[in-house]
Design goal:
Blueprint lengths: L1 H13 L3 H5 L5 H15 L3 H7 L5 H14 L1 H31 L4 E2 L17 E8 L5 E10 L2 E13 L12 E9 H9 L6 H21 L17 E8 L23 H7 L8 E4 L26 H32 L1
Parallel strand pairs: 1-2, 5-7
Antiparallel strand pairs: 2-4, 2-6, 3-4, 4-5, 6-7
Helix pairs in contact: 6-10
């Protein structure tokens, strides 16, 4: 309002003949006042006069142009993000299609592969058949991992157990591998912690009983000692695992760090788990996807192969992100145009 009054006053004062009309030289005081006003108006700087009339200097024009371009910057950024989501969607489609084709191939026998083989780099997401025996004492529990069972969510863990070679069996694996046997309830880990290990006690008991038998037989038959027969091929519970070669998981920033000393594993770190199980760091890691589950003993429940051809962000999600970014780009660009349009009409 004050600016409008100032502009109107200056237009009135600058109009020719207006001072003589309104301030007639009736008295010396009025004439001197008119002269003072006229000199004041004539001494007004040209810059302030140009600004009062709406004209801008070259420096101001460059600043206004820059501010105009800055108004369109958010629209350009959001448009670029939407375009980037289009390329991400195409890459995700190709990746999932690659996994699906590899899972449809026939399983490869793992006994024909060694850890130092060059084929390991190309075996990821390829089904392999492994024959060996599980070393239950060195199982690792990774979790917690939730699973929905009949609409009820239950916490549990992934059970990772070393699969050891079978002596004198050419079909067995040549070296130990780590097998993710699948999901098991939380009680499995609690039982493993409560169950005492009797690794050395049976051997001590058997040796002491053998000594007693030998001593009794010596006193009874003097020179005759019973022959202790040993089974040259002890019975082992051989297991065939059909799984997929995988690598370590890439945890998010919200996942805590693993603590091997306390047995806390929050994500799969293959070299660390192998070292904890007293295996080489280059031990192969396989996820069991065998669909033939024994109903009487369903746990650990192997992974579903369909989960391997899924991702946390699917192609449809990328498409939704694209539409969202493009909508934001159109909205902020419209706001920028709307912001500049009243200035042009005012001129």
């Amino acid at each position: 309002m004050a600016l409008y009054i100032e502009r109107s006053l200056k237009r009135v004062l600058l109009r020719p003949g207006l001072l003589q009309k309104h301030w007639a030289p009736s008295s010396p005081l009025s004439s001197s006042s008119a002269a003072a006003i006229s000199s004041t108006v004539s001494q007004t700087p040209s810059n302030s006069f140009a600004q009062s009339q709406g004209f801008k200097l070259p420096e101001e024009e460059r600043g206004s142009r820059l501010s105009k371009w800055l108004l369109f910057l958010p629209g350009a950024l959001t448009f670029g993000l939407g375009t980037w989501q289009i390329f991400r969607r195409q890459d995700k489609i190709e990746m999932l299609e690659y996994r699906r084709k590899r899972l449809e191939m026939e399983p490869v026998k793992f006994n024909e592969i060694s850890p130092s083989s060059d084929q390991l780099d190309t075996l990821e997401f390829r089904r392999v058949a492994c024959l060996g025996v599980f070393d239950e004492k060195r199982s690792i529990y990774v979790g917690p991992r939730s699973r929905s069972i009949s609409g009820v969510t239950e916490n549990g863990h992934y059970v990772i157990t070393p699969l050891m070679p079978i002596p004198n069996d050419p079909e067995s694996v040549r070296s130990p591998i780590l097998v993710n046997r699948g999901w098991a309830p939380r009680i499995w880990k609690e039982r493993s912690l409560e169950t005492p290990q009797y690794d050395e006690q049976p051997s001590d008991t058997s040796s002491s009983s053998t000594q007693e038998v030998e001593q009794r037989s010596w006193w009874k038959f003097w020179s005759k000692k019973p022959k202790l027969t040993k089974d040259p091929t002890p019975y082992v519970d051989a297991v065939e695992v059909i799984g997929v070669v995988r690598g370590s998981e890439q945890p998010s920033i919200f996942v805590p760090e693993n603590d091997p000393s306390s047995g806390q594993w929050f994500y799969v770190d293959v070299p660390s788990i192998a070292c904890t199980c007293q295996l080489p760091e280059n031990t192969i890691y396989v996820e069991d996807i065998n669909e033939n589950v024994n109903p009487s003993c369903p746990y650990p429940l192997p992974k579903d192969a369909n989960t391997l051809i899924r991702s946390s962000v699917m192609p449809q999600d990328h498409l939704n992100y694209t539409l969202t970014w493009y909508s934001l780009s159109a909205a902020v660009t419209f706001m920028a145009v709307k912001r500049l349009r009243p200035q042009r009409s005012r001129r």
